[in-house]
C-alpha cells in the first residue's frame, strides 16, 4: 500500500507490504479467529451435552406427578433449546463449520502464495538448466544493440569487467539499475546452470553453498576499540531515523584507514526502568573480492561473506557479532535488536533466526537496509523491518521477495541515481536514500510501520534515557 500523507520525503513512491497491516496478517487473523471460534463451538457442544441431564433430573421426574402439564412444557422447552433447529447443539455445529472455513481460508492462502513463488523459481531454474548458452543472443535482440552487445561481451569475457569499454560498462549499469528484476531472474537461473554443469540438481542456497566452498570463511577475531564518543553514539535513539543514522555512522567508521576502522558496535540502552536493552549495528560489504585459498584476505566484510550469508550459513561475521555481544556483556534474556545494511542485514537476519531458534539471545527486532533476506526462516516472534530501494540490485541477490507475514514489514521506495553504488549506499540527510526514508517512517501512519515502531518502543529501544556504545574491529583468520 502507498505511504499515507505525512511523509517528509516527496515523490519517492514509498510502499509497504507485510507486517501487521499486510495481506498475510489478515489471513493469519482468519486462522486465529477460526481457532477461537473452534473453542467457542467446542464449549457450546460440551454445555449442550451436559445440559441433557436435566431432562431426566429426579426432581423434574418427581414434579411430573404433581404437575404433568408443567413438566411436559419444561421438557419440551428444554429439548427445543438444546436440540431444536435453533438450539444450542445446532448453533455449536454451525460455529464449528465456520471455524473450519476460516482455518481453510488461511491455509489456502498460504499454500497458494508459496506455490506461486516456487513455480516462478522452478521455471527460471528449468530455463537455465535447459538452455544455458541460448540467452545472450536473445537478450541482444530484446535489449537493443548497445546494451545487448555489452552484455554479450561481458559473458564472452567470462564476467571480466576490465575487458569492457567504458560505454559498455555504463550501458550494463543502466540496464541493471533500471531493471533490477533481471537480477532476480539471473540469481534464480544460477542453480539451474550449476545443476547442468555437475549433473545433479541444486537449489539457490545449495548453489550458493557450493560457490562458497571456493571462498574459505575462516573464523572471527574481534578486538575491542573502546567506547565511541561521537554524538551519534552518545545520543539515545528516539525513533527509526535515529537508529538508521547510527548504523550509517558505523558504516562510515568501518571505511576508515583502508577499511580497518570499527565495523561492529554494540549499544547498551538503559531505560527509565533501569533495565538494559542492546542494539547491534553491522555495516555492509567493504571489499568486493573474496577469501579464496591463498589470498590472505582478512577483511570480514567481503564478497565471500555475502555468498555464505545468502546460503544461510553461520559466517565468520556472525561469529564476530556473537563475540562482540559477549564482550559487551549482553545477557541471554536482554532484549536485542540487530541492524544491518547490505551484507550486514543478511548476517543480522540469519543471526536473529539462528539465535532465537537456539535460545541463545532474546532478539526481538531486526532492521535491514538494502539486504537480500527473503530466504531467511525468521521466527514469528521476531519483528522485522526491511527497507529496499527499487533501483538497488543488492536486495535482489537472493532472487526472492521478502515473506509477507504479520511480523515482517517491507518498505520499498524509489531513489534512482543511475549507478549501482549510488542506489545502494545508505546516504545522508536530504538525498532521499535509506537514512532519509527511515527518518520519514518515524512519523508514518501506515498500520504495519506503526506496529513496528510501537514494537521498538515496547521493547525499550526508542525510549532509553542513556546509551553507551562499545565499538569493535572484526577480522577473518584461517581455521
Please outline the helices and strands.
Blueprint: E1 15-18, H1 23-51, H2 58-66, H3 68-83, H4 88-130, H5 135-143, H6 145-156, H7 166-178, H8 181-198, H9 204-212, E2 219-227, H10 231-234, H11 240-254, H12 256-259, E3 264-270, E4 276-282, H13 303-310, H14 316-328, E5 335-341, H15 343-358, E6 362-369, E7 383-389, E8 408-413, H16 420-424, H17 434-441, H18 447-458, E9 466-477
Parallel strand pairs: 4-5, 5-6, 6-7, 7-8
Antiparallel strand pairs: 1-8, 2-9, 3-4, 3-9
Give a description of the structure.
The radius of gyration is 29 Å and the shape is elongated. The protein has three domains: 23-108; 115-200, no CATH class; 213-477, no CATH class. The protein is an alpha/beta fold and 479 residues long. Strand 5 (335-341), helix 15 and strand 6 (362-369) form a beta-alpha-beta unit. 51% of the residues lie in helices and 14% in strands. Residues 1-11, 115-148 and 187-214 have low confidence and may be disordered. It is built from 18 helices and nine strands. Helix 2 runs antiparallel to helix 3 (68-83) and helix 13 (303-310) crosses helix 15 (343-358). The chain has a nine-stranded mixed sheet, with helices on both faces. It has helices at 23-51, 58-66, 68-83, 88-130, 135-143, 145-156, 166-178, 181-198, 204-212, 231-234, 240-254, 256-259, 303-310, 316-328, 343-358, 420-424, 434-441, 447-458; strands at residues 15-18, 219-227, 264-270, 276-282, 335-341, 362-369, 383-389, 408-413, 466-477. The longest helix is centred in the first third of the chain and has 43 residues, at 88-130. Residues 310-392 form the GPI inositol-deacylase PGAP1-like alpha/beta domain. Residues 253-262 have a biased composition (Polar residues). Residues 253-272 are annotated as: Disordered.
Amino acid at each position: 500500500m502507498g505511504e499515507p500523507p505525512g511523509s517528509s520525503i516527496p515523490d519517492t513512491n514509498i510502499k509497504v507490504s507485510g507486517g501487521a497491516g499486510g495481506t498475510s496478517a489478515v489471513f493469519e487473523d482468519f486462522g486465529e479467529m477460526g481457532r477461537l471460534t473452534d473453542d467457542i463451538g467446542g464449549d457450546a457442544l460440551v454445555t449442550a451435552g451436559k445440559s441433557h441431564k436435566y431432562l431426566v433430573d429426579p426432581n423434574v421426574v418427581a414434579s411430573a406427578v404433581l404437575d404433568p402439564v408443567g413438566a411436559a412444557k419444561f421438557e419440551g422447552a428444554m429439548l427445543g433449546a438444546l436440540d431444536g433447529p435453533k438450539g444450542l447443539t445446532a448453533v455449536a455445529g454451525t460455529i464449528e463449520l465456520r471455524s473450519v472455513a476460516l482455518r481453510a481460508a488461511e491455509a489456502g492462502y498460504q499454500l497458494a502464495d508459496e506455490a506461486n513463488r516456487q513455480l516462478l523459481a522452478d521455471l527460471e531454474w528449468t530455463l537455465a538448466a535447459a538452455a544455458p548458452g541460448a540467452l545472450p543472443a536473445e537478450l541482444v535482440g530484446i535489449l537493443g544493440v548497445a546494451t545487448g552487445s555489452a552484455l554479450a561481451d561481458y559473458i564472452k569475457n567470462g564476467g571480466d569487467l576490465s575487458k569492457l569499454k567504458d560505454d559498455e560498462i555504463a550501458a550494463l549499469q543502466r540496464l541493471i539499475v533500471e531493471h533490477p528484476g533481471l537480477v532476480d531472474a539471473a540469481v534464480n537461473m544460477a542453480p539451474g546452470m550449476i545443476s547442468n554443469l555437475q549433473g545433479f540438481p541444486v537449489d539457490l542456497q545449495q548453489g550458493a553453498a557450493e560457490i562458497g566452498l571456493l571462498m574459505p570463511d575462516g573464523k572471527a577475531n574481534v578486538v575491542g576499540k573502546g567506547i565511541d564518543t561521537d554524538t551519534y553514539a552518545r545520543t539515545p535513539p528516539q525513533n527509526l531515523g535515529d537508529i538508521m543514522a547510527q548504523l550509517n555512522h558505523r558504516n562510515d567508521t568501518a571505511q576508515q584507514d583502508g577499511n580497518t576502522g570499527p565495523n561492529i558496535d554494540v549499544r547498551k540502552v538503559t531505560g527509565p526502568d533501569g533495565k538494559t536493552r542492546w542494539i547491534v549495528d553491522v555495516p555492509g560489504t567493504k571489499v568486493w573480492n573474496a577469501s579464496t585459498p591463498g589470498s590472505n584476505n582478512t577483511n570480514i566484510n567481503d564478497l565471500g561473506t555475502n555468498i555464505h550469508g545468502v546460503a544461510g550459513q553461520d559466517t565468520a561475521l556472525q561469529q564476530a557479532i556473537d563475540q562482540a555481544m559477549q564482550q559487551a556483556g549482553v545477557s541471554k534474556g536482554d532484549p536485542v535488536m540487530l541492524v544491518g545494511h547490505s551484507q550486514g542485514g543478511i548476517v543480522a537476519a540469519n543471526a536473529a533466526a539462528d539465535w532465537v531458534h537456539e535460545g541463545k539471545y532474546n532478539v526481538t527486532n531486526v532492521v535491514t537496509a538494502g539486504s537480500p533476506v527473503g530466504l531467511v526462516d525468521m521466527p514469528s516472534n521476531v519483528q522485522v523491518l526491511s527497507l529496499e530501494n527499487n533501483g538497488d540490485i543488492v536486495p535482489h541477490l537472493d532472487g526472492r521477495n521478502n515473506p509477507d507475514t504479520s511480523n515482517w514489514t517491507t518498505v520499498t521506495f524509489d531513489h534512482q541515481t543511475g549507478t549501482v553504488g549510488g542506489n545502494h549506499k545508505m546516504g545522508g540527510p536530504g538525498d532521499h536514500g535509506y537514512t532519509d526514508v527511515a527518518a520519514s517512517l518515524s512519523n508514518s501512519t501506515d498500520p504495519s510501520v506503526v506496529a513496528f515502531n510501537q514494537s521498538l518502543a515496547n521493547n525499550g529501544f526508542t525510549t532509553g534515557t542513556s546509551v553507551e556504545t562499545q565499538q569493535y574491529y572484526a577480522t577473518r583468520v584461517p581455521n
